[in-house]
Amino acid sequence: MKKIVIASIAAMALSTVAMAEVNGKVCASCHGQHFEKKALGKSNVVQGLPAEEVAMRLKGYKHGTYGGAMKSVMKGQIGKYSDEEIDAFAKTINTMY
Ligand code: HEC
């Protein structure tokens, strides 16, 4: 029993380390502080999009199923995050609008 408890605590610690929050601050250089700009003059304005839509597009960039001519730029931004991290970030994005 003790061993199981120790093992699960270790597993939890590991998953906490592996979990990285999407850093929304780095987005501002292209999308604006409140996601009010067209990134590099090319993207749609993200401000005002519902969280599910943001999550869908970000995961689309990661998996190569969404995007326009400059989708590789966004793949570089978001590709390192898990789908769960993207979902969690998308739920908080309207606090930045
Ligand atoms: C180096 C500039 C740059 C940075 C930094 C950047 N983006 Fe983008 N983003 C773009 C460009 C360019 C596009 C349009 C890509 C395309 O052609 O589909 C885009 C598109 C998007 C879209 C979809 C908008 C649409 O046109 O449908 C979302 C959502 C988005 N970015 C979110 C983010 C988030 C969140 C971050 C920070 C983690 C971020 N971006 C960082 C340049 C950037």
How does this structure look, described?
- By secondary structure, this protein is mostly helical.
- Helix content is 54%, strand content 0%.
- It has a single domain, classed as Cytochrome c-like domain (Cytochrome Bc1 Complex, Chain D, domain 2).
- 14% of the residues are buried.
- The model has no long low-confidence stretch (mean pLDDT 90).
- α3 crosses α4 (71-78) and α3 (51-63) runs antiparallel to α5 (83-92).
- The protein contains 5 helices and no strands.
- It binds heme C (HEC).
- Heme C binds at residues 22, 26-27, 29-31, 39-40, 42-44, 46, 54, 57-58, 67-71, 73-74, 77-78.
- Residues 22, 26-27, 29-31, 39-40, 42-44, 46, 54, 57-58, 67-71, 73-74, 77-78 line the site of heme C.
First and last CA, distance: 48 Å
CATH superfamily: Cytochrome c-like domain
Task: Provide the CATH architecture.
Answer: Orthogonal Bundle
Structural class: mainly alpha
Pattern of helices and strands:
HHHHH
Q: Give the number of DSSP strands.
A: 0
- Average pLDDT over all residues: 90
